[in-house]
Amino acid sequence: MDLRLPSKVLEHIFSFVDSNEDRNSVSLVCKSWYETERRTRKKIFVRNCYAVTPEAVARRFPEMRSLTLKGKPHFADYNLVPDGWGGYAWPWIEALAEKSPSLEELRLKRMVVTDECLEKIAASFKEFKALVLTSCEGFSTDGLAAIAVACSNLRELELRECIVEDLGGDWLSYFPETLTSLVSLDFSCLDSAVKLSDLERLVSRSPNLKSLKLNRAVSLEALGSLLRLAPQLVELGTGSFSDKLDQEAVSKLSQAFSELKQLKSLSGLWDVHPEYIPLLYSVCPRLTSLNLSYATVQMPDLVELLSRCSNLQKLWVMDLIEDKGLEAVASSCKELRELRVFPSGAEDLDETNVAMTEQGLVSVSEVCPNLESVLYFCVQFTNEALVTIARNRPNLKCFRLCVMEPFSPDHKTQKPLDEGFKAIVEGCKDLQRLSVSGLLTDKAFQYIGTHGKKIRMLSIAFAGESDLMLHHLLSGCESLNKLEIRDCPFGDTALLENAAKLETMRSLWMSSCFVSFGACKLLSQKMPKLNVEVIDEHPPETRPDSSPVERIYIYRTLAGPRLDMPEFVWTIHKNLEIGVSNLAIE
Amino acid sequence: MSYRLPSVDKEGLKERNYLGLSDSSSVDSSTIPNVSDKKSSLNFKATELRLGLPESQSPQRETDFGLLSPRTPDEKLLFPLLPCKDHASGHKRGSLAKSDSNNAPAAKAQVVGWPPIRSYRKNTMASSTSKNTNEVDGKPGLGALFVKVSMDGAPYLRKVDLRTYTCYQHLSSALEKMFSCFTLGQCGLHGAHGKERMSEVKLKDLLHGSEFVLTYEDKDGDWMLVGDVPWEIFTETCRKLKIMKGSDSIGLAPSAVEKSKNKDLIPLRV
């Protein structure tokens, strides 16, 4: 009996399967399901651009319309990956231009994108609709002009925290008068001022515009006229919030804000002058997302503002909020799901506000039942606080604590924070992402290995005592997908003993640890399906096997060794004559 | 290509081989025991990596982190990793009182990428919290280091990318080109005062012998005369440039001399 469903029926069924994780499972069932699934998948996610070749992706998914690509490892955000390491978008864009000309959406994260890339996109994809670049670099505003002028169906153009060579604000003026399809525009990371009249015209001919994120150069006064043209906005990123406005201008602006009946998300707010904060009061009750992380607003003003945000789900703020402010948040923002508190002093710890301690986070955890995602920079913490937080919020999914001074113990007991993190991993059974900090011994990692069964991403710095730390993690954390470690004292043994684990993970990053060059070579030989990249300025020929390497980045790949490695990146494929490692590891 | 090594604070840095390892010892590190005698089988007794209570005999806290890659590959790895302990004075770790340490600069060692804040945020915050909130500080971007250059009396600013210059000479001739249109009317025809020149910047040539000096604001917010420090250090610390009238810079000269280790440096006077 032929039990196979006709492919048309399968196609129809699969059209209800949205998530790619599910689609991946579907494609493993049998050949015909694989074939049907691959011919119908439109949204493709490649989370490591070196894990697979663009040609292979294009071949497998002929109906690809949307591609999301990630390049550099996460620690590149903190300058730990040297310039020139890789992550180039060009090979992908070149291949897709030829093989997937119907591509409509491209979302790139931590990749090097040049003006040629942007020009190629503009020239090759006739139906192109969405370009979202996050933490990318390598292009200038000229490339943006190319996109603006050519993509006649453009819906989304978003530059999130990119490093752009800013040659001026002209690029915006290249959007043709015929372009009326814009839904989302984010140029918040650019410096230069765009021509206000061109921006106003663009906004007024974009009835579908839902998200507008301006750059700092857009004045408060200009904001007013833009808001009047786009009262339908759902997401707004303001420019600089500190002009000197006369009374009439202030009341007009206040009126404009109160017309934003759909506004759910607010960001920008650079240089906020306290006297203008009341302008925001009218939108507060509807806000679900508020990013004040660039607003140097002091606690009392923050409390005034946040006490009106009863529907807030996502809050990003600086430690200027202090413990008192977080208590106020706890009592006003009961719907809070995500909290991120950033340090205001940045590199100079002396400026960090000590009025924000572990107590602030404890207060929020006590009262906000939906809190599931936390990023918290703090100068001090205690085990007791961690235990309390874990008890209050077993539903935490993402917990990233950064105690800013490395090796800081519990500031009340001077003990390591092992017991505190034990409570977190034991109590929060659905924890998927964890960043630890403070003084931690191997015990902490034993606890994480034992209890952190759902942890997918783990970030560690300045912690642990020995190889056991790594062994606990690699052998215990079943769901581990991304592991990044810096400045921890472990060496080769744990890595080599748990080599097989590495094929089940997306990537492992280790820098300033104690992994020897010989171990890297041995690992490369044992595990051909991994790229073991040694990122180190010393040429490999001069490096003895026992010498530790500066950084290693290991990731599974179907694409084999990459062809674009700079001098300071070494894989075994580069110098096969260096030969077999002379280590003997059981 | 630019390749950044983990940078460590340059003052008070001591290189230590804390783990006391010989060349092959990273290989010899113990196999993973299944029993709890892990501590004794690992080589750490001889090292500083103990977790003592504050009053134990641990040395004064050194906070030089980060990996110092040895210049010669067969040097031992310098992995100065030391759990923080309280100062001998028993200060609580949580306090931010750093001034008690006579190693104050070392205690604030600049570790690359720590705390883990994105460069984008650092750059943005640097400009928000600086004293002049209207001006954007030098933004180290991908290969570019833009600083604003202003000049007394000029109607607008310029931006220069310090990384496109290799030495003071180069910078000064570029600035000369950029700002010459402002000085022509003012400078008259003074001859060069040959004797008093800063060794690296010929400001008189730059500014047609007029009464201007080239100054910069460093990352601590202090205004200094350009030319004090080696070029590389200058590009790292310069946040803004300003072409000041000579009379305004008089206050700078003594502090520039005090800061500068080279006491022979003669401040420019016109």
Describe the structure concisely for a colleague:
Chain A is of the alpha/beta class. Chain A contains 20 helices and 23 strands. Chain A has a 21-stranded mixed sheet, covered by helices on one side. In chain A, strands 5-7 form a two-stranded parallel ribbon.
Structure description:
The complex is a heterodimer of chains A (586) and B (270). Helices cover 31% and strands 17% of the residues of chain A. Chain A is built from 20 helices and 23 strands. In chain A, the strands form two sheets. Chain A has a 21-stranded mixed sheet, covered by helices on one side. In chain A, α1 packs across α3 (31-40), α5 runs parallel beside α6 and α11 packs parallel to α12 (322-332). The longest helix of chain A is centred in the middle third of the chain and has 12 residues, at 247-258. Chain A is globular, with a radius of gyration of 26 Å. Mean pLDDT of chain A is 92; it is low at 346-353 and 579-586. The radius of gyration of chain B is 25 Å and the shape is elongated. Chain B starts with 24 loop residues before the first helix and ends in an 11-residue tail after the last helix. Helix content of chain B is 23%, strand content 11%. Mean pLDDT of chain B is 52; it is low at 1-108, 129-144, 183-208 and 253-270. The chains are: A alpha/beta (586), B alpha+beta (270). The interface between A and B is large, with 89 and 69 residues.
